[in-house]
Amino acid sequence: MTTPPPFTVDPNVGPATQDYLDEALANPGFGQHFTDHMVVIDWNRAHGWHDAVVRGYAPITLDPAAMVLHYGQAIFEGLKAYRQPDGTIASFRPEANAERFRASARRIAMPELPDELFLASLSELLAVDSRWVPAGGGESSLYLRPFLFSTERGLGVRPAGEYRYLLIASPAGSYFTGGLKPVTVWLSTEYVRAAPGGTGAAKFAGNYAASLVAQAQAAEQGCDQVVWLDAVERKWVEEMGGMNLFFVLGSGADARVVTPELSGSLLPGITRDSLLQLAKDFGLGVEERKFSTEEWRDKAASGELTEVFACGTAAVITPVGHVKHDGGEFSVSGGATGEITMKLRDHLTGIQQGRVEDPHGWMTKL
Ligand code: PLP
Ligand code: COI
């Protein structure tokens, strides 16, 4: 499909009252409130992508034998729209999300949504729901959630022949209820998130379902998040539940950032990729390599490891202060938030909010 189908807009939508909207924007939380509209685009073998429509946000009906309910073909993306100082709305590297959405689709044997249609769906939704984008100058934004799932009815195990793409949006404040407080993490050695050759590099719903029991275990241990290790040796750090990880070694002129290399089983985060670039721009050393739990523990003890943080669209940059595992626990730099963590965070959010220059052309007007 080369020319995206035009979108129709359903006029029969009762928008949220101003009171409801004011309340949602004052206390957005994460994923609690949804905008007035959603985008729907269907795919089938005969027609490809068709019937693109912006319609009122509402429940959808599915056949009980819809294949997604049985065999789980479902992928998603997550990106944000930010109010700029001049009142316009821009998003951060949406082209990268479009590309990753196609990569996820390929891995789960689903049709690839063309990038131009993915990007058009964002603009079409924002055109009718712009009042849901929080005011600029703060950390709030409008979280955009594109997703794709199989709708064909049937119980044969095979790639479905019918799919539905939906885009919904939700005002977002801080992902963690504690705000910017350093989080405590649990090193998961019992459960793994993804194995070599598996689906870990895709934004596939099943990866998140597989993570929930370990997340519950982390909560039982008094931790905020799980850190996933490699499936084979249970030794190499991969990532967190919805975030990639960075380690800062050394300080001052010797400081360098290390992040686990893309192993094939962790998600290639767009924030991760952007921070590698910003760290280089700041003159910091940058290493993408394997990082073990022993290195984490030993260098935290020796003081060479000065900061640890997690990053992702929803979580932005969140400091990691304390680590618990089966055999004990330890802190990094007394559990305090580090200087480089804050410098990268301020710069990244500055670009997103239009406060600082965007030399890499990462912001796209919607
Ligand atoms: N890792 C996982 C498992 C995620 O779900 C996410 C969130 O999208 C990330 C990492 C961070 O990716 P990004 O920076 O593209 O949001
Ligand atoms: C995101 O950061 O967009 C995520 O998808 C993380 C989580 C909410 C699943």
Automatic annotation (TrEMBL):
<comment type="pathway">
    <text>Amino-acid biosynthesis; L-leucine biosynthesis; L-leucine from 3-methyl-2-oxobutanoate: step 4/4.</text>
</comment>
<dbReference type="GO" id="GO:0009097">
    <property type="term" value="P:isoleucine biosynthetic process"/>
</dbReference>
<dbReference type="InterPro" id="IPR001544">
    <property type="entry name" value="Aminotrans_IV"/>
</dbReference>
<dbReference type="Pfam" id="PF01063">
    <property type="entry name" value="Aminotran_4"/>
</dbReference>
<feature type="modified residue" description="N6-(pyridoxal phosphate)lysine">
    <location>
        <position position="203"/>
    </location>
</feature>
<keyword id="KW-0663">Pyridoxal phosphate</keyword>
<keyword id="KW-0032">Aminotransferase</keyword>
<dbReference type="InterPro" id="IPR033939">
    <property type="entry name" value="BCAT_family"/>
</dbReference>
<dbReference type="InterPro" id="IPR043131">
    <property type="entry name" value="BCAT-like_N"/>
</dbReference>
<keyword id="KW-0100">Branched-chain amino acid biosynthesis</keyword>
<comment type="similarity">
    <text>Belongs to the class-IV pyridoxal-phosphate-dependent aminotransferase family.</text>
</comment>
<dbReference type="InterPro" id="IPR018300">
    <property type="entry name" value="Aminotrans_IV_CS"/>
</dbReference>
<dbReference type="GO" id="GO:0009098">
    <property type="term" value="P:L-leucine biosynthetic process"/>
</dbReference>
<dbReference type="GO" id="GO:0052654">
    <property type="term" value="F:L-leucine-2-oxoglutarate transaminase activity"/>
</dbReference>
<dbReference type="InterPro" id="IPR043132">
    <property type="entry name" value="BCAT-like_C"/>
</dbReference>
<dbReference type="GO" id="GO:0009099">
    <property type="term" value="P:L-valine biosynthetic process"/>
</dbReference>
<dbReference type="GO" id="GO:0052656">
    <property type="term" value="F:L-isoleucine-2-oxoglutarate transaminase activity"/>
</dbReference>
<dbReference type="InterPro" id="IPR036038">
    <property type="entry name" value="Aminotransferase-like"/>
</dbReference>
<keyword id="KW-0808">Transferase</keyword>
<protein>
    <recommendedName>
        <fullName>Branched-chain-amino-acid aminotransferase</fullName>
        <ecNumber>2.6.1.42</ecNumber>
    </recommendedName>
</protein>
<comment type="pathway">
    <text>Amino-acid biosynthesis; L-valine biosynthesis; L-valine from pyruvate: step 4/4.</text>
</comment>
<dbReference type="InterPro" id="IPR005786">
    <property type="entry name" value="B_amino_transII"/>
</dbReference>
<dbReference type="GO" id="GO:0052655">
    <property type="term" value="F:L-valine-2-oxoglutarate transaminase activity"/>
</dbReference>
<keyword id="KW-0028">Amino-acid biosynthesis</keyword>
